[in-house]
Structure formats: structure tokens, C-alpha cells
Write a structure and sequence with these properties.
The complex is a heterodimer of chains A (about 90) and B (about 250). With about 90 residues, chain A is of the alpha+beta class. Chain A has a four-stranded mixed beta sheet, with helices on one face. Chain B has two domains: about 140 residues; about 70 residues, no CATH class. Chain B is built from six helices and no strands. At the A-B interface, helix 3 of A face helix 1, helix 3 and helix 4 of B.
């Protein structure tokens, strides 16, 4: 699966990593719906680090469409409410 | 309401499908897409230049403020040595204010530096994708029938479009931040224009608007501390007779 972190580029993720990202995605959604700002930032930060660490960078000259688009790292809690609702970034 | 990520993919898909609907000749679509991509790359370059300009402006202000801090500190010492405690206090108050502004500016310069680096990275990514697109479009033109080409064009154009939209949003965020900082830079410039950080000996005696503003800013505690420190450094300053300030006095 190809994931784009906005402002950082694209990463190719293995299924196992996608599963872990999805769990964090769900954690972020429930934090947002529970109005838990710290919880959101924690889950979101962990998600970004996981993608950066485990993902393989898609080369600049490779044209690929992303399956999932992750909002930028400096996303505020207020901005997050729209992306992290329902199924979150990755449909379950 | 879609969030940033949701909005981005929707916008990209809508734009690309509009582009493909309009074109009859795949070759034309490809060339048109490529032109648009190059335009967007130019925009990014301009955006980076704007950030650099804003950063330079703030950097120059910071330099001026640093000079003011040194100057006001010297004046406070001179005033105290001459036994003019009131003037020394005013100089210290202004020094405090200049230092506070300086801290804010330094932070903003660092933030703009980070923005510049991020945008430069984005520009490099987009350039890579556009270059790949240029190669790909010639291959598509040469090798595929119109129907087949359409699908491949769509894929390639959406892929580059995604990068363009991403860079576009990064630029928007950078522009917003830069605007905030421009406002702050103007505020500091106003203080400068009002003579807040000027040579105190040029201002004459007595309270002016700036003094009142300074009092309201409540730098009092820090000023008291520094005054005490200065006095200790100079030996009991108040013991000396109240005399002339020394060179530069134009009261």
C-alpha cells in the first residue's frame, strides 16, 4: 500500500505495517470523538513515526497514486476532527 | 466536511478528470498537463523566494535589536555611574523590551528556516515527478492507442497532481505563517519608528509616550533585578553625585 504523509512524500508499506497504522488510525479517531487532544496527538505522532520508520520511500521520479493520504505532521487537534472521523484515514 | 487529507484527494481527482474530459487528443492532454506542472513548479519556487525574503527581513531586524540591546545596556551603566538612576531605569526597561522582541524574532527566523527547508524538499520531489512525467508522456504518445493511453495518462496525471496538491497545501501553510510574521515584523518596526530602541540621550528628559507604554508592559520585576545587579557591579552607584551623563547628552 502507498501512503502519503502530506508535506513529506510517499511511502510503500507492507501489509503488516498497514495493519498497525490502521490500529493507530482507529485510536486517533476514538481520541478525536472523545475530545481527547493528548490522546490524539499521541496516536497521530506514533502513526507518523511508524510510517517513516517502516515505510520504504517512493523515489522522486516514480509516479504513484497514494492509497491513503495522511495529513501533515503539524496538524492541529481542531484540523484533525474532519480527517479522523468515521473510519478514519484507512477504511476498516 | 472532509479534512485536509480527504479534501486533497478529492480536489486532485476532480481536477484530473476535468482535464481528461476536455481533451480529445491524448497527446494534447499530456502536453497540457506537463505545462501545468511546470507552472506549479514555478509557483513553488516563488513561494520559497518569499519565505527567504521574509526570513531576511526578520534577520535584519534581529540584528538591529541586538545592537540596541548592547547600546541600551551601555547607557544604563553610564547613567548609573553618573548617578542618574531614573535614566538608567528607563534604559533597562527598553533593553528588556528589546530582548523580548529579539527572542520572538529569533524563534520566527528559525521557524521560517524550517519552512524553507520543507518547501525546498517538496520542490525537489515535485521536480522529480514532473521529470518522470515528461519521459512517460513521450512513451505513452509513441506506444499506445488512444483508448489505452487515456488510462495511463489518467494514472500519471493523477500521480503528479497529487504531488502538486501536496506542495500547494504546504505552500499555503508557509504563506499563512509568513503573513503572521510579517505582521509581527511590522509591529517591531512601529516600536522602532516610535524611537523605543533609540539612543536614550537623544530623547531628552521627562516621560514620553514610550515611557508610559513601557511601564504598562510590566517589565518592572526584571528591570529591578537588573538594576540591583548593575548597582552591585558598579559599586554603590547612588552614592555618587548626580552628574552629567557623559558623551552624547543632548538634553
Amino acid at each position: 500500500m502507498i501512503v502519503r504523509i502530506m508535506g513529506e512524500g510517499q511511502y510503500r508499506l507492507s501489509d503488516g505495517v498497514v495493519e498497525r497504522v490502521n490500529e493507530l488510525d482507529n485510536a486517533a479517531v476514538s481520541a478525536v470523538s472523545g475530545d481527547n487532544e493528548d490522546g490524539f496527538h499521541e496516536a497521530f505522532e506514533e502513526m507518523l513515526q511508524l510510517i517513516r520508520a517502516e515505510g520504504e520511500h517512493v523515489a522522486d521520479d516514480e509516479i504513484e497514486n497514494s492509497d491513503v493520504i495522511v495529513p501533515p505532521a503539524d496538524t492541529s487537534f481542531r484540523e484533525a476532527t474532519a480527517d479522523f472521523s468515521g473510519d478514519g484515514l484507512i477504511p476498516d | 466536511m472532509a479534512g485536509m487529507a480527504g479534501r486533497m484527494s478529492t480536489v486532485v481527482k476532480a481536477k484530473i478528470s476535468k482535464l481528461l474530459d476536455r481533451a480529445e487528443d491524448p497527446g494534447e492532454t499530456l502536453d497540457y498537463s506537463y505545462t501545468k506542472q511546470l507552472e506549479s513548479l514555478q509557483q513553488v519556487k516563488k513561494g520559497i523566494a518569499d519565505v527567504v525574503t521574509a526570513k531576511k527581513r526578520l534577520g535584519m531586524q534581529a540584528q538591529k535589536l541586538e545592537q540596541s540591546v548592547v547600546k541600551l545596556d551601555t547607557q544604563a551603566r553610564q547613567a548609573l555611574a553618573a548617578g542618574n538612576e531614573e535614566l538608567a531605569r528607563t534604559a533597562l526597561e527598553r533593553k528588556q523590551l528589546a530582548q523580548t522582541e529579539l527572542q520572538g524574532l529569533d524563534q520566527q527566523v528559525a521557524e521560517l528556516q524550517a519552512q524553507q527547508e520543507k518547501l525546498t524538499e517538496s520542490e525537489k520531489r515535485l521536480r522529480g515527478k514532473i521529470e518522470a512525467f515528461r519521459t512517460k508522456k513521450e512513451v505513452i504518445k509513441a506506444q499506445y492507442s488512444a483508448a489505452d493511453a487515456q488510462v495511463r495518462i489518467s494514472e500519471a496525471a493523477t500521480g503528479v497532481g497529487e504531488e502538486m496538491a501536496d506542495v500547494g497545501l504546504a505552500m499555503q501553510r508557509a504563506v499563512d505563517k509568513t503573513e503572521d510574521m510579517k505582521a509581527r515584523a511590522s509591529a517591531v518596526e512601529e516600536l522602532e519608528a516610535a524611537g523605543t530602541f533609540e539612543d536614550l540621550t537623544m530623547l531628552g528628559e521627562g516621560k514620553d509616550d514610550i515611557d508610559r507604554e513601557l511601564a504598562e508592559l510590566g517589565a518592572g520585576g526584571a528591570v529591578d533585578d537588573e538594576m540591583a545587579k548593575l548597582k552591585a557591579e558598579l559599586g554603590s552607584g547612588s552614592a555618587k553625585p548626580k552628574g552629567e551623563l557623559g558623551a552624547g547628552e543632548q538634553a
